[in-house]
Amino acid sequence: MDKDKIKQSFITSDSSIKQAINKLNETGHRILFVTDPDEKLTGTVTDGDIRRGIVNGIQLTDPVSGIMNSKFFSLKADSPDKTREAERIMQKHLISHIPVLDRHGRVTDVISWIDCLNLELAPHRQANETFENAVVIMAGGKGTRLDPFTKILPKPLVPLRDKPIIEHIMDRFFMNGFSRFILIVNYKKEMIKSYFSDTRLPYSIEFVDETEFSGTAGGLSLLRDRIDSTFIVTNCDTILEGEFSDFFNWHREHNNLLTIIGSHKEIEVPYGVLNMNNGLLLQIDEKPRIDLFINTGTYIFEPALLGYIADGERVDMDKFIEKVKASDNERVGVYPHWGGWLDLGQWDEYRKSLKKIGESTDEL
Prior knowledge:
- By secondary structure, the chain is an alpha/beta fold.
- It has 2 domains: 3-116, CBS-domain, CATH 3.10.580.10; 131-356, Spore Coat Polysaccharide Biosynthesis Protein SpsA, Chain A, CATH 3.90.550.10.
- Helices cover 27% and strands 29% of the residues.
- It is built from 11 helices and 19 strands.
- The chain has helices at residues 3-8, 17-27, 47-55, 82-93, 149-152, 165-175, 189-197, 215-218, 244-253, 317-327, 347-356; strands at residues 10-11, 31-35, 41-46, 75-76, 97-101, 107-112, 131-139, 159-160, 163-164, 178-185, 204-209, 231-235, 238-240, 258-268, 272-277, 280-286, 289-301, 332-337, 341-343.
- Strands 11-10-7-12-17-14-18 form a 7-stranded mixed β-sheet. A 3-stranded mixed β-sheet has the order 1-2-3.
- The two termini are 25 Å apart.
């Protein structure tokens, strides 16, 4: 990471938690480095630290010293093969950033989970905490937004560096302790099945065939006899950063029937916005920034939700969620996710994601 960008993530121990949240939003780096006057690293602060602090009663005006992690992992600047070692530490301890320190304890570089995407998981390593809960991947759509790739390949097999998108998704879940995957397939399904029949992976994969295109949620009706416990549903074109056990704990603590993983996104309006009243100008906000939470396409479901979809019903996920919310408004929740995520479902985002992980898009 560029040194100037690293310094943008420096914060002092007496800064408030609100200031830390604002700095996370401003930088988009998802981690802050607490430094002393000599810029020596004394602790780290992540969105997870902030979320846990707030749940435990910390106030936004309190200093970050009360939530920072002073027992952080780091690498020495002269360590050989730092990216490989960072990958090992990230997988073992389920963290997403490793600072690299010089001999004075100052941050010279940061290695993130994205930097390790091109490293093979061979041998694949699983998290210390494991889950028997299924991860359902909606892999049956035509993926028309990725034409012309998807005229040849089904969207789940579109390449991202050294392997298909869907394998990256499953690797991330496996690193977080999930090893049972159910793929709902339809479009070019034989190609997907053939790929996995020739690929040795350390997790189990079941295929469920749609006979008709049932929308982004309708295929879930095919799971009623397969799932009897809490499960995850995710699109086949998004890769999330973070500890997935946090999603589960949030869902359970709030006794939700359905939890949507919503990722923070700051949108800059590229114009001057006019605030008016009765035709008179109140003020002009020049290129304002708007904080939004975006649906990442990842959800946590209770099995009772499968009863909300009739056999053969065509329904998209937004309409399905509206139906659930109308019947049980108190148990549809949103997990506020400040971690990064890659959206690979359309060309612009696909190119941005490739660029983000250092892949050239000149050939696209």
